[in-house]
Fold each of these.
Amino acid sequence: MKHLFKSNLFKIFFSILILLALVKLLWFVVEMVWLSPVGIGHDDEVGNKSLYYRVKLTPNEAPPPMKKQPIKIAGSIKDITLLGIYNSEDTTVITVEYKRKTKVLARGDEINGFLLEGAGSNFATFSKDSKTYRVVLLKSKKSTGSNSSIKSTSSTQSVPAKDSSKVKGEVTDAGDHKIIDKSLFDHYAKNMDDIYKNIGISEVKENGKIKGFRITFVRRGTPFAKLGIKRGDMIKSINGQEINSYNAAFEVYKNIQKVENLTMVIKRGKEEMELEYEVN
């Protein structure tokens, strides 16, 4: 009986092995015929991808646009040439050349980033970025170029200009000469801007040297229009003083309140003529 029990046990065990082998063989056939080559537990070695991703939880903000900084070209005090100086107790006016143009500046005016602070007998002082600069008067100008108009610039510190219609004093025609009221000189000494609003002046050069100053315009109804000068006239001298530099013109202007008579030599076309004035 014991022998038969062991034989039956062996048969059962052997049958189980055969059944497992058949199941495995059947699964292999099914896998080869119907199932995808990629599935659970199958590693695709070609094009493997990670099973995790990086996620940015903050909002996607575009970077601010880069602003182009403007290129600043620093001006140099060497670009300014001092041509003439006028100084009185309460007025400082200079003539400079900048970029081949002539300009008249009063104290407080700015040019090329430099502020006019004052002037001495042969120099002008400017300030910029808390620094002080000195420009020495040019004694003899040898550079060549075309005529440059004198232009005034606005000033924040100078005395505000008054309308010429409010000017006290007149220019009277006495026949062979003109009579100028002294109050006109007082007004224009304190209101330099009125001069350049009512009369235009440009330098006349010959071989690079100033030979005189030409009248470019005279505004009608102003005292200048009554002086007898016309557009195109060239001023050559006043009281024997040749007007061949800005400093010479300022010297005449500076002392004009002290004189009682004026003789101005002008060139009109090809003819030279004298204009006589009496000051009282």
Amino acid sequence: MNNCIWFTGLSGAGKSTLAFALQQDLSACGVNAYVLDGDVLRTGLNNDLGFSPEDRAENVRRVGEVAKLMTDAGVTVLVALISPYRADRDKARKLFAPGQFIEVFVDAPLLTCIKRDVKGLYAKAQRGEVPGMTAMTSPYEAPLNPDLHLHTDLVPLAQCLAQIKALLP
């Protein structure tokens, strides 16, 4: 069975880094894996959406639907998406068979995320240039019971990858 591994967390926590590293590892083992990255999707499929709660919900809904189609086609899908609201992530999970959706909470303190911010989004948000920035002016609801909780400020990348792969069939 192909899986959807859903990486959620703040901007700068390491979601995309983990997803792309895992894609490389899985591909090297012959697994057809693909990353659906939130930043990339916002420039194409979801470029008509803003950052209101309604638009964020629609962003997650669309990504969940695409991920489901891709898993049905035999691809292991790695979603790297802030997806700040629990209810939206729960709706995405319901699209998949039991055990097929793996929620990974990529967790790092806000100050660590700000230090890692290569795009300068947090600085822009502090200047008021990014309205609705998650964890700055918009909430992030951490998962209550993720399948895996990774503290990327404390655990090296290789160890995080090993923990994720341990969950895969």
Amino acid sequence: MIEPARSFDRAAEEYEAARPSYPDELLDLLPVGRGATVLDLGAGTGKLTRVLARRYAHVIAVEPLDGMRAILERVVPEAEVRAGGAEAIPLADASVDAVFAAQAFHWFATDEAVAEIARVLRPGGVFADVWNETEEPTPLPGAYRARLEKLFSTRAGAEDGTREEAIRRGPFGRVHLDSVLHEQLQDRDAMLTFMRSVSYVAKLPDPEREALMDELGALLPPGEYRFTIRASARWAVRA
């Protein structure tokens, strides 16, 4: 079985094709000016990077996985893309006005990574942990939902608490939580592509992964599925 974080390289194209983006309005809620230099840490294929590039003067994207980074360079050519990880960010001290981690902070919510984030932030800079979450009720059929709940039960709540605690232990002020709603429309094929991009599925050995995908496909009728998604930012200002 492939290491969970590394599994995304195996499913990089699926991640790019099916994962939702983020609404520009989410950035309106953060105290980061348009002339800022910002870092997208653990940028993946650039789902948030392209939104940042529409807003800020200089966007740096750091991503450790080669396959994800290749797509990122292709789809967001206006960003400065670098190889690297959260525990050793390839930037100088106090070099950025904001650090964003989109759907990624749970992989590196450690004191060491938070210290690195604080190191590259200028005093008064912002760290934002950003993620998408599907609102209830969803359009998914009951049997499909039940199978997903069995696969992924009990994970999100514990991760959420760990991430906030990691920020609070760092050199940051009050932790804020803001969100906006947006929509994503997917057909059956896109829904199944999305599932292939999930780390739990991507890391499975080929026969197990394909058996699971066949099972999920049998539970998901053809058609279009419209999701209401809450994009959230948990953010704090560096002291």
Amino acid sequence: MSIEADCRSFVERAARELGRIDVLVNNAGVSGHALFEEVKDFAWYEQMMRVNYFGSLWCTRYALPYLKASRGLLVAVCSLAGKHGIPGRTAYSPSKFAQAAFFEALRIELRGSGVDVTVAFPGVVSTDIRLHGYGPDGGAAGRSGLDERGAMPVEECARLIAGAMQRRQRELVMTAKGKLGQWMKLVAPGLVDRIALAALRKD
């Protein structure tokens, strides 16, 4: 996903073998967790942006003609970290903010084309993405920096996204805390900061 030519090849092969493209789900992503002052090598910041943002951008660009022909659906699996800056996620949050902003702008550009855009904002989901993501030195983190108690099961996350796709819903915030956080950020931003800090894993 971090190589434009590979994204183009993947989309064109899918269209060739299937005959059409009705839906593109941009789900590929990489995680990372480190306090900014702990980071020793910023190369993984760039790599994360290439996967989480540019991968979605490139796949979308090459799939768009097929989606217009089928009046299809674009889906971006973003993150609540793409709505709220999360401490320890100074690489991940910007990549997801960029992804969310891209699809929001594109949705408006595509108005009247027949192509709809759904952006999903899950919270913490029970996957190993944070274990395999980057740590301060650019190697695998080996642990999650977040408190994952109460994490959403993968099956539940997939079910909610599938439902939003069926409705061609423009945005899906997948947790009650996430929905509340959007309002609180407007009226009590300092409290949102404290809640974000509280989400960090305590050892």
